[in-house]
UniProtKB/TrEMBL annotation:
Bacitracin is thought to be involved in the inhibition of peptidoglycan synthesis by sequestering undecaprenyl diphosphate, thereby reducing the pool of lipid carrier available. It is a multi-pass membrane protein. Belongs to the UppP family. It comes from Marinicrinis lubricantis. It catalyses: di-trans,octa-cis-undecaprenyl diphosphate + H2O = di-trans,octa-cis-undecaprenyl phosphate + phosphate + H(+). The chain crosses the membrane at residues 54-73, 94-112, 118-139, 198-216, 222-245, 257-276. The gene is uppP. This is Undecaprenyl-diphosphatase. Catalyzes the dephosphorylation of undecaprenyl diphosphate (UPP). Confers resistance to bacitracin.
Length: 277
């Protein structure tokens, strides 16, 4: 594998790290960058290329674990309780996170092969970008002006399940997991920051699960030649995700979702113009 291919892995990792936690669709950006410029599937099979995209998402997820390490330690009951006053009916529970994962988890298992084979394309991403943007605008428009849920510890099982239902939309590439779940959280009465925090925490187990399934199904495609490509992508996604998570969490309560929705619509228009002309 030459330096050009490693550069492609670096670029895809950066794109993933910068976009995974913004509601703009990291998968959509990777598909667009790869399909229209990098063409990584010219030297990797389709299944290995898709597995690579899952792996660099895993790099971003590990960055989430670092940022929320105290919260995950608390959820797993490993000691080191959070140094903050409990608000509301009690602390966020691991079982509430699991409830939020159930709807998309079931659909993801049932339709994983179909999604991998038929939905990873520029055309489907354009659809997801636009429809996801509409949902985000609706969330800002119809969500409560003064949300009652201001911390993770105020989230109930009903909130978790509602957000989980909306997360199902993110199985469509381009829709954006964070865009869907933050919108669902805002519509359910959470502040934008709390919805974002819960979104990132839910992303960890679901992406670990997706990675494990993908690795198991495509293990035969991993070779020593492809290994540097995976390592470079993973590291770059991890580093840039650390940067983007902290920046996004400081920003989201202030600017909310509409600016990201406008970006998605403009991006979809530019890509459609380039791709179809």
């Amino acid at each position: 594998m030459d330096i050009i291919e490693l550069f492609k892995a670096l670029v895809l990792g950066i794109v993933e790290g910068l976009t995974e936690f913004a509601p703009v669709s990291s998968t959509g950006h990777m598909i667009i960058v790869d399909d229209m410029w990098l063409k990584s599937e010219q030297f990797l099979t389709q299944y290995v290329a898709n597995t690579f995209k899952v792996m660099i998402q895993l790099g971003s997820i590990l960055a989430t674990v670092v940022v929320f390490k105290d919260r995950f330690i608390d959820l797993l009951g490993l000691g080191g309780r959070l140094n903050k006053t409990t608000v509301g009916p009690g602390r966020l529970k691991l079982s509430q996170v699991i409830v939020g994962l159930i709807p998309a988890g079931i659909l993801g298992v049932l339709f994983e092969d179909y999604i991998d084979e038929h939905l990873f394309s520029t055309e489907t991403v354009l659809i997801g970008l636009v429809i996801g943007a509409i949902l985000m605008i609706a969330a800002d428009r119809f969500g409560p002006k003064e949300p009652k849920i201001q911390t993770l510890d105020q989230i109930t099982y009903k909130h978790a399940f509602t957000i989980g239902l909306v997360q199902c939309f993110s199985l469509w590439p381009g829709f954006s997991r964070s865009g869907a779940t933050i919108s669902g959280g805002v519509l359910a009465g959470l502040s934008h920051r709390t919805a974002a925090d819960f979104t990132f925490i839910m992303a960890v187990p679901i992406m670990f699960g997706a990675s494990a399934i993908s690795f198991y199904k495509n293990l035969e495609y991993f070779t020593l030649d492809a290994l540097p490509f995976f390592i470079v992508g993973f590291i770059s996604a991890f580093v840039f995700a650390l940067i983007s998570i902290r920046f996004f969490l400081k920003l989201i309560n202030r600017i909310k979702l509409v600016p990201f929705a406008i970006y998605r619509i403009v991006l979809a228009g530019v890509i459609a113009l380039i791709y179809f002309t």
